[in-house]
Amino acid sequence: MNPYRVAVVGSGPAGVYATEALVRSDVEVSVDIYDRLPTPYGLVRYGVAPDHPRIKSIIVALQRVLEREQVRFLGDVNVGVDVSIDDLGEFYDAVVFATGASAGRRLAIPGEDLPGVCSATDFVAWYSGHPDHAGAGESFALDAESVVVIGAGNVALDVARLLAKSAADLAHTDMPPHVLERLASSGVRDVHLVCRRGPEHAKFTAKELRELLELEDLATRLDADLLPADAADPMVAANLKAFAELAVREVVNGQRTLHFHFWSRPIELLGDGDGVAALRLERMREVEGVVRPTGEVVELEAGMVVRSVGYHSTPVGTLPFDEGLGRIPNDEGRVTGPDGRPIEGRYVAGWVKRGPSGVVGTNRACAAGTVAGLLADLAGRPARGASAADVDRALAERGIVPVTYDGWLSIDAEELDRGRGLGRVRTKIPDWETLRRIGSAAGREPVQNTA
Asked: What does the alpha-carbon distance between residue 279 and residue 266 come to, in Å, rounded to a whole number?
């Protein structure tokens, strides 16, 4: 009896966890993982801060899944563009979409489109070596003395910390050389972190806040009077303790200063055709649990503004998409049509399923729930009977030659070799042309199984 064949679109944590749940089930399943990029691991590779190698170590566990006998990696294939969703339906018994949430939400205030204003998603992708942003250096000149980061989550804190760090602090990371060179010549001296609510509401983690205390040449400015005396929630209490230490910390001759601005709502970005010049803020306060404006307006000088106020997914091919929620509509992972009924053979996992919430590990339970429903739907149905060779032949007829897992291993080896040459563990390759060329070195032969 032929195994079921499932396509998973997206090789980030959600996609790999869905693959893991499929191949570890009692049902015989072969999985092809598609990714738009020639490289796997999604957010872990291109979203986790470069100076957080411990978090990136999750790649070791994800790699073990990609190396399973029943799994193939088919990179550099843009599902919905290079190959349609209907095309996949000809060869797969089910398709799981785990495409994440790669677009940054907007502030919806005047001046947001001024030069020098960008989303954290774009800035993080640039310093993480994402090939879509290899040529973004001109957009991130880093010649402004004052930069504002808007947001109260760990991504906002990552951006602020990396802008505030010295080049020496980042020299060991896997950042591409051109990014390190730009950071080394940065003119930034003041980084302002703007949060709409108070410190007790911030979504930072105490661990990341305490990293700031370890930066000897970074001064921090925070109004200690804004800190509540205590908190019942232990995570909030840990944050408040870290904030208290940052508020009284003294740094003499700090190269840069990180300023925390709580209870501050962005209302307008000021500037002209040459770029953003300032951010206008309105002070806020909490009254009976409701955040209200005070009427007090202040301005922060800013030659660059990075917004980090949330993420949303983007449409995939012809699949239904809820623009308001910013994700694919679904019922416990089953994609639903306009009538609210499940569309046969279409599933979602991760942020495109539930929205951008949780940590990397949250995607494991999310993906497992989707796969449980998928396998229940397949129960008793005969497999389509398509083979890996059938899939490869159909892709080739469309002019598509994927980067296989062996191709990725060639890219991986080259990055490690480049890193060793610079005294680092890894140096990322940031451009499409080089990634594709090295990915082709393995011959791009169909790999792993031929079931």
From this structure: 7
